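Progress note, sequence design subtask.
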């Protein structure tokens, strides 16, 4: 039941993150409440504690990037929900795969955005300048600082890889 609920939530959050760059509280909070109730019913106090511990670990993993402005609050809450649903070990494994997928996504965003050749030339010139002792400042366009990408996709991909590599079927 929890696995199916997790997949439904991940699919909804990926869709909203891709379309609107948002992961909605009206999806996360009811799922969290239902998760806690299900764990309490199925495993009693141990299930409740496992859920709370997984939630705390999931939240802690993305809290610093969020506080530094590199992550949205919805992403933090989604990973915390994954932890609440599946526990500490699952969310830690998910975080490793999520980071790898997120790095690939970030690289893709950098490579396929307008002005990539100019940025690459500036990096090469800057590195060449460092070699000869001259510091060439890198210029960053205003729009480069506001670029976002749907990190919910990386979280869902990390969870999918965690499921697949643990031998659990996706549905």
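Output:
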């Amino acid at each position: 039941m929890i696995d199916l609920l997790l997949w439904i939530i991940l699919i909804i959050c990926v869709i909203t993150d891709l379309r609107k760059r948002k992961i909605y509280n009206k999806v996360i909070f009811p799922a969290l409440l239902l998760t806690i109730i299900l764990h309490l019913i199925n495993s009693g106090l141990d299930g409740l504690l496992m859920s709370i511990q997984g939630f705390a670990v999931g939240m802690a993993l993305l809290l610093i990037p969020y506080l530094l402005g590199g992550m949205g609050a919805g992403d933090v809450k989604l990973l915390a929900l994954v932890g609440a649903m599946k526990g500490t070990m699952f969310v830690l494994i998910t975080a490793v795969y999520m980071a790898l997928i997120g790095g690939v996504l970030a690289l893709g965003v950098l490579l396929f955005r307008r002005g990539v050749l100019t940025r690459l030339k500036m990096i090469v010139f800057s590195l060449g300048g460092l070699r000869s002792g001259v510091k060439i400042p890198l210029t960053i366009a205003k729009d480069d600082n506001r670029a976002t990408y749907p990190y919910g996709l990386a979280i869902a991909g990390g969870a999918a890889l965690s499921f697949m590599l643990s031998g659990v079927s996706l549905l």
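Residues 25-67 form the longest helix (43 residues). Work on this subtask will continue into the next period as scheduled.
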